Amino acid sequence: MTFRAPVRDIAFALNVAGHGDLVETSFPELDADTVAAVLDAAGAFATEVLAPLNWAGDQAGASHADGKVTAAPGFAEAYRAFAEQGWNSLSAEAEHGGQGLPKAMELAVFEMVHAANMAFGLCPMLTQAAIEALTLHGTERQKRLVLPRLVSGEWTGTMNLTEPQAGSDLAALTTRAEPDGNGGYKLYGQKIFITWGDHDAADNICHLVLARLPDAPPGVKGISLFLATKRAVQDDGTLGEANRLWAASIEHKLGIHASPTCVMMFDGAQAELVGELNQGLAHMFVMMNA
Asked: Which terminus has fewer CB within 10 Å in the chain: N or C?
């Protein structure tokens, strides 16, 4: 079956939901023609670029070798085009490099992206979650050096919660964060089911990781959120050496094979605290609700 993005239906749904009134009152510089042009262009990208990759990507899948993941054929190129065309930055704040458009427009665009190719759409979806978390809880350094690269799509984001013994019961989480003596932390542990945990579509991957300090309270009240990047981010924004984290394998799933669902290992991975100590679960819910 040939996919065609339902641009007219989505535009109609936005109007019925009151998007026009929202634009008029809160985004006066945005006009109806621009909204229509964005939706048309997103529909064309979903139809012409993403949909043709869906079936072939599911058949080939992502591949793993020597601790590294290679995206399914065509996916890395499609992701770079997605980022270059600005689709990753629609609703992000202008001060971080975003376009400042209504969240509803971003959701409308991502509806078409996921409908065309869910395996692809999961990557920028997790990046949007990381953007939301760092916007609300990131440090000045994280907002200056990391957040703009996530907004632009140059780098991607992940969400690391689940462990072999801790899925819905995050009180059982054992990944630990040890202070490194220089204001940072080193992470030790294993995470599973990490969507787009590794790939070759972007220069860096920003892992948002739940872990606990040695003296943290038991249960969920002792969980903190950390940022660990695949490659070190220097103070001038350039990339340094590889961090001590890697994909041990990718999960074998019934579908969406082009989305690499990774087992991630952290063996002294350098990390930074995001937000407040022992408030990691609350901060992670910001990602979940993005």
From this structure: N
Per-residue pLDDT tens digits for 207-250: 999 999 999 999 999 999 999 999 999 999 999 999 999 999 99
In whole angstroms, give the CA distance from residue 19 to residue 171: 40
Single out the residue of 79, 1, 11, 8 nearest to residue 45, CA to CA.
79
Q: Which of 139, 125, 107 is nearest to 22 (CA)?
A: 107
Domain that holds residue 95: 1-290
Measured in whole angstroms, how far is the alpha carbon of residue 263 from the centre of its chain? 16
Q: What is the pLDDT of residues 47-65, one digit of tens each?
A: 999 999 999 999 999 999 9
Burial of 23: CB neighbours in 10 Å, binned 0-12, 13-18, 19+: buried
Residue 155's CATH number: 2.40.110.20
50 secondary structure, DSSP code: I
Can you tell me the distance from the alpha carbon of 188 to that of 266, in angstroms, rounded to the nearest whole number? 5
Taking alpha carbons only, the member of 178, 174, 177, 205 closest to residue 190 is 174
Contacts by 12-20, CB closer than 8 A, 24 or more apart? 13/108, 14/104, 14/105, 14/108, 17/104, 19/102, 19/104, 19/105
Distances from the Cα of 228 to the Cα of 32, 90, 179, 184, 288, angstroms: 41, 25, 14, 10, 18
Cβ contacts of residue 279 below 8 Å, gap of 6+? 224, 225
Instruction: Render pLDDT for 267-281 as a digit per residue (tens, 0 to 9).
Output: 999 999 999 999 999
Q: Which amino acid is at 224?
A: S
Question: Is the dihedral angle over the CA atoms 198, 201, 202, 203 positive or is it negative?
Answer: positive
Is there a contact between 233 and 271 (Cβ–Cβ < 8 Å)? Answer: no
**Number of structural domains in the chain:** 1
